Amino acid sequence: YSGSRNQLDGELTKWLSHAETPVTSARAIISPHAGLVYCGQTGAHGFKSINPATTRRIIVLGPSHKKYLSGCALSKCSKFETPLYDLVTDSETVAQLYKSELFTDFDVYDDENEHSLEMQYPYIAKVFSSVHASLLHSFYISSVHASLLHSFYISSVHASL
Question: Which pTM was predicted?
Answer without folding.
Answer: 0.81
